[in-house]
Amino acid sequence: MAPGSKANKKATVDAAAWMFNVVTSVGIIIVNKALMATYGFSFATTLTGLHFATTTLMTLVLRCLGYIQPSHLPFTELLKFILFANFSIVGMNVSLMWNSVGFYQIAKLSMIPVACLLEVVFDKIRYSRDTKLSIGLVLVGVGVCTVTDVSVNTKGFVAAFVAVWSTALQQYYVHYLQRKYSLTSFNLLGHTAPAQAATLLIVGPFLDFWLTEKRVDMYDYNVVSLMFIILSCTIAIGTNLSQFICIGRFTAVSFQVLGHMKTILVLTMGFFFFDRDGLNLHVVLGMIIAVLGMIWYGNASSKPGGKEKKSYSLPTTRQQKNGDDSDEGPRLKA
Which InterPro entries does the UniProt record give (predicted)? Predict the structure, then answer.
């Protein structure tokens, strides 16, 4: 296959992966918002456990059909991933409860610098000036869209700190595990989804009761709310899979930067479906700034030197240099 056709094929698959993630992520947010706001199902952690239980069923079916091949992931690596992932989910829910919406959004935005730091420290990635500036522009744009009132308290700050670092580590680890153990997105989901489902379904009801003072088993289930729960779980299969596909093909930083397109789409769709007063001039301005930043980031990071690993060369001593010169001298004269 010619290099040009390979590049075109990769670009097509990359675009399809992003579109898959954007559609499923926005879809699940809209469905969950309707489920929680309209039907009062406020048990977010338990619902996430149900999402992973449904994803586990999908991986079992695909394994039986032969689409997922046997693979190995050490228990210690799986345990670390589950800790990061579950602390991320719990931390986000607690952070939303203990913080103002403005500080919660700022905490979410800080995931990009943290993800950059992890790549710099562990992968020795170097970012160009344009790449750094484009990331900054995205942060400014999304901040203008979402950040309103900002108030900070100690326990809220601790919850946000845990949520940000655990989320960044979980997303970094998705990319790391796929590379190190040659795992596909399906393979990795097959290892992690059952463990996450089990832990979240055990912890979820207790955590949700602590956060909402309501019991999930006492919820007034009906046909419509059950349909929304099933729809949410079905979409979650695509959301979980597409996240692993995107981070595996790209990096956690790219996933976070371009992923803010989902924030813009959620704001826009929320305007049409829920809050007609939510879209004003400064929100539209923030959206435009963020989109320009994403376009700039995509262009800057794809250029040579935009985002690359540092290369280290051994230092050359003066004695070695003189030795090299003396060796080259006679050869030049010969």
Answer: Sugar_P_trans_dom, TPT_transporter
